[in-house]
Amino acid sequence: MIYLGRMFAIFVIMRYTENATVYNNWRDCEKRMKKNYDYLIVGAGLYGSVFAYEMTKAGKKCLVIDKRSHVGGNIYTKEVEGIQVHEYGAHIFHTSDKEIWNYVNTFAEFNRYTNSPVARYKDELYNLPFNMNTFHALWGVKTPDEAKARIEEQVREAKAAIRNPEEPANVEEQALLLGGKDIYEKLVKGYTEKQWGKRATELPAFIIRRLPFRFTYDNNYFNDKYQGIPTGGYTQMIEKMLEGVEVRLSTDYFAKREAYDDLADKLVFTGMIDEFYDYRFGELEYRSLRFETETLGVDNYQGNAVVNYTEYEVPFTRIIEHKHFEYGTQEKTVITREYPAAWEKGDEPYYPINDERNNTLFAKYKELADKEETVIFGGRLGQYKYYDMHQVIAEALKKVDEEI
């Protein structure tokens, strides 16, 4: 009887264990069957929108969510007084990649806008990038040889004054060795200090690897073959990408993370990678921006889309007059003052600080990311890299190719 009792007990345990395994397998299967989407895309910016468009075209079902109340991320434009206002700073599309240029032109018609910013130092105005117009305004020189001679003279003076010119210790020394005193003090020093929130002598030299000298009377800031602004702004371009895609705005992924994860087979995450991992190794550093936008009752405030204020005592780095991006003739104008700001948790991050400390920290997060089988990280924040728009698109298309 004892023997039979033990056998019965073993039989019950085996049946229970078997049923539990079957039950768990069934629950896992049911959970998989309940997946409503192939991809959950966190972020309706450029990377997420390109990815959603391509995957939808490939027959995949995508859900795009964004914590903001609009699509477009930082390239979002809003119409004010008939003017497309770049709500998160000036964005000029430029690339030398013909395929990328053709790609964006399938979603919008681009105008011929050429980025030609002006630098204002006190009451002096200079063209950017540094070119013959700049050098003429600085020194009255008229030929490339005269400009080169003046720069070389000031660089020699800097080499004689710097303790170890072969290894510049900071941004100040680096800039002096590249362009000399006049260019550094009027056009580099104050702007760079405002941009990074530190004095030039406290910033690592690698921040300024080179200074773009152009010995022609050419104010075109970019060397890329193609550039322009989408007529009617960037928002309508993103909206076209997202046609036929389910989009939920004012939706915070982290508010219901587990529930959102259960909706799709794979996650595309374009937010901060350190936040995704709950800051496990510590916070990465970012720079933030603050904008002051106002509508003015004049038809032309500064005569140019972008004017950089290089004087340190002026707290903002530049003023953007939005109508000039599309050659506007409206009776009023809209301007935005742009203030760099230190980033703190909860602020909007705009670009990473890719110094040695942060790159080392990011490598730890990337090691985790590389092991993920169902999570894709994209964009400036997800990949912790300063990308221009054409590079973001290229990265998204590359990932699409890998997925398909």
What does this structure look like?
The protein has helices at residues 2-33, 46-57, 98-104, 132-139, 144-161, 171-179, 181-196, 235-241, 257-261, 273-276, 356-370, 379-382, 389-403; strands at 37-42, 62-65, 77-80, 83-86, 93-95, 118-121, 124-127, 226-228, 246-248, 264-269, 286-296, 306-309, 318-321, 333-342, 351-352, 375-377. 35% of the residues are buried. The longest helix has 32 residues, at 2-33. It has 404 residues and is an alpha/beta fold. It folds into two domains: 37-116 and 224-403, Rossmann fold, CATH 3.40.50.720; 118-207, no CATH class. Residues 1-33 have low confidence and may be disordered. The strands form four sheets. A seven-stranded mixed beta sheet has the order 7-6-12-13-14-11-15. A five-stranded parallel beta sheet has the order 9-2-1-10-16, covered by helices on one side. The chain is 38% helix and 19% strand.
What attributes characterize this protein structure?
single chain; 404 residues; alpha/beta; Rossmann fold; 2 domains; seven-stranded mixed beta sheet; five-stranded parallel beta sheet; 38% helix; 19% strand; disordered N terminus
